[in-house]
Amino acid sequence: MGINSRGDLMSQYFINIYDAVKTMISGMSLTLEHLRKKKDLVATLQYPNEKWPQPDRNIGFEHEDYNVIRSRLHVDIDDCIGCLQCERACPVDCIKIDTIKPSKGVEFDCGETSNDTRKKMIVPRFTIDMSECMYCNLCVYPCPEECIYMVGGPNEPKHDIDYEYSKYVKHDLVFEFSNVTDQQIVDIGAQSYLDERNSKIEKINKGTTLRGNELIESPVPAAAAPAAAPAAAAAPVQASDTLDIKCLDIIEDKTLKTPAKKVFFKSKRAGEDDIVKIDKVIAEISKIDGYTPELEQKLKELL
Ligand code: SF4
Ligand code: SF4
Q: pTM here?
């Protein structure tokens, strides 16, 4: 290897070091620049808190050219007459509607639709669960007032296209369209509807808190409570069946122990309580020689 080629290698070595340092510095400066201008330069959005603006352009068709659009369902509730046709048409039952007619003798104006149809009832509940909706549009066609529709497309003049309805929890995808107030429900004479709805809400709210098994207290009459003290005092003489036959091993004399065990065993099989068992044992062996008052005392102490 000549001197020249060795010099080339050395210079290449330093060039490589220079390139590496230069690349590292330019990379780091880019990173620092992004850190400094985080808001402007970072491409990812903190969705759904941040959202891209909706593009102006459409996908190549004019809105009126869409014959069917699959988007978000909307109800112009002031035009709804509560005929339930959409609810009945829905194959997955994701539309729920309640209607109330004015009670007899109650003067209540339910209003008119924009097609001048006089409404005969109010709609205190009109929910659509968009998490279950399959965008079939079947609820749209039968509506006599054309007040339920998918937004955008041919319905653009009625409601802008709205593709954005992400939610944190599934339940928030149940959209309520009714604008009937509690006062209107009372005025139409349907206080019972209100009460029933409130009790359902209360039940649901209770159900959202997991409380585990609750102790069900037995309904002890208040007057019976003071009687508890004397009962506790009498506890030693309460019927029980806890004594084991081995307890008779305190009898050392075999001539007493054997008949004592026989009587005890019989009494246990008969299901008698401990007091009776010991009484019978005492009665049996007290006639036999060797029985003493001390032994009797010991036997009674077993209880
Ligand atoms: S689009 Fe279909 S699934 Fe959705 S609410 Fe209407 S009928 Fe039901
Ligand atoms: S079909 Fe139309 S008018 Fe009838 S309940 Fe449904 S939204 Fe209301």
A: 0.56
